[in-house]
Every structure is written in structure tokens, then in C-alpha cells.
Design brief:
The protein is an alpha+beta fold and 81 residues long. It has a single domain, classed as Cytochrome b5-like heme/steroid binding domain (Flavocytochrome B2, Chain A, domain 1), CATH 3.10.120. 23% of the residues lie in helices and 20% in strands. The chain has a four-stranded antiparallel β-sheet, with no helix packed on it. A hairpin with a 3-residue loop joins strand 1 and strand 2. The chain binds protoporphyrin IX containing FE. Protoporphyrin IX containing FE binds next to helix 3.
Length: 81
């Protein structure tokens, strides 16, 4: 069993601004990346995924298909869908 709480898609979708928090999903995981937005090497583009799935964006920007990027993402995990 997982140590993480389960969130609905609706709950994730309600977090799509720096004010309300920026959450994204990736492969069933939920991530609060609010603090990471300002550190993102790709700048504000990251906000396009706010409240939704990373997969379609990372399919376009293959630079994310690296172990070190996934390790970075894992630090922001807050739950699961
Ligand atoms: C680059 C992380 C979401 C667009 C990068 C890099 C990291 C990163 C670590 C540098 C990779 C390297 O050079 O080795 C993340 C994380 C994300 C995220 C953790 C989500 C939590 C997004 C989204 C987009 C995006 C949603 C587009 C809509 C880009 C672009 C670059 C980049 C364009 C290349 C920047 C450059 O080298 O000029 N990202 N990213 N990223 N990211 Fe993201």
C-alpha cells in the first residue's frame, strides 16, 4: 500500500496557479511543483501543465526523458490519483 494520499482529478485541477499552488500529475502520481516553477530551466512554459498531466508536454519536450529529471520530480510528490 502507498504512503501517499489519494487525490481526485478535480482536486488536482483546482491547483493551477502560483496563488493556489501548482499541481501536476505524472503516471498516476500527484506533484506539488509550486516551489519548483521559479527554478525550472524551461521557464514559465511549465505552467502550461498546471492542474493537469505532464505526459503530453514531456512527449513534445524530450529533454525531460532523463533519470535526473524524474528524480527531481519525485521530490515534489504529494499523492496519487
Ligand atoms: C528543461 C524539469 C515541465 C519545458 C527542463 C530541465 C529540467 C526540467 C530539469 C533541464 C533538463 C536538462 O537540460 O537536462 C521539469 C519538471 C517539470 C517540467 C520537473 C514538471 C514538474 C515542463 C513543461 C514544459 C517544459 C510542462 C513545457 C510545456 C521545458 C523546456 C526545457 C525544459 C522547453 C528546455 C529549456 C532549455 O534548455 O532551454 N525541464 N520540466 N517543462 N523544460 Fe521542463
Amino acid at each position: 500500500t502507498s504512503a501517499f494520499p489519494i487525490f481526485s482529478q478535480e482536486e488536482v485541477t483546482s491547483h493551477r496557479s502560483l496563488e493556489d499552488g501548482v499541481w501536476v500529475t505524472y503516471k498516476g502520481g500527484v506533484y506539488d511543483i509550486t516551489e519548483f516553477v521559479a527554478m525550472h530551466p524551461g521557464g514559465d512554459k511549465i505552467l502550461l501543465a498546471a492542474g493537469g498531466a505532464l505526459e503530453p508536454f514531456w512527449a513534445l519536450y524530450a529533454v525531460h526523458n532523463q533519470e535526473h529529471v524524474l528524480e527531481m520530480l519525485s521530490e515534489y510528490k504529494v499523492g496519487e490519483l
